[in-house]
Amino acid sequence: MSSVLCRSIARIKPSFKSFKPSFGAGVSAFSTSKRAENKKVVISSPHAPPAIGPYSQAVKANGFIFCSGALGLDEKGNFTATDVAGQTERVMQNLGHVLSAAGADFSDVVKTTILLADMNDFATVNAIYAKCNAHSPLHSLTD
């Protein structure tokens, strides 16, 4: 049985492109194509467990990456630990793989929701989460 479920929302890093205005000086600017921003892209990593239902590991849309809930499973779908610390470590690894497949990392995360089976595990989970998210995005823990 899983003790930890975590899901995150990350912002997509803006891409920069150089262009030369009519007066000839080179400058950098954000690439803000509305068409590209509105495109929905399904994200999948072979290093994280596959979705076990009709959903995706993550979706890029409108400048954000929406990650599905992650459990402490390996890429074959097996639990790798029975304790909350081991499961949390694996959950964070899985989210890291999915974020990486989307071209992001934990520094891009703006919101995380963590569901616990037991609030007595709060300190353990929060300490592991803090190692991955040193910049402290918004997050909520609930049981």
Brief descriptors of the model:
3 helices, two-stranded antiparallel ribbon, 143 residues, alpha+beta, globular, single chain, 60s Ribosomal Protein L30, Chain: A
Structural summary, described in words:
This protein has a single domain, classed as 60s Ribosomal Protein L30, Chain: A (2-Layer Sandwich), CATH 3.30.1330. Helices cover 24% and strands 28% of the residues. It has helices spanning 34-38, 84-101, 122-132; strands spanning 4-11, 16-19, 27-30, 41-43, 58-61, 64-67, 109-116, 138-142. The strands form 2 sheets. Strands 4-5-6-1-7-8 form a 6-stranded mixed sheet, covered by helices on one side.
Note the topology.
Layout: E1 4-11, E2 16-19, E3 27-30, H1 34-38, E4 41-43, E5 58-61, E6 64-67, H2 84-101, E7 109-116, H3 122-132, E8 138-142
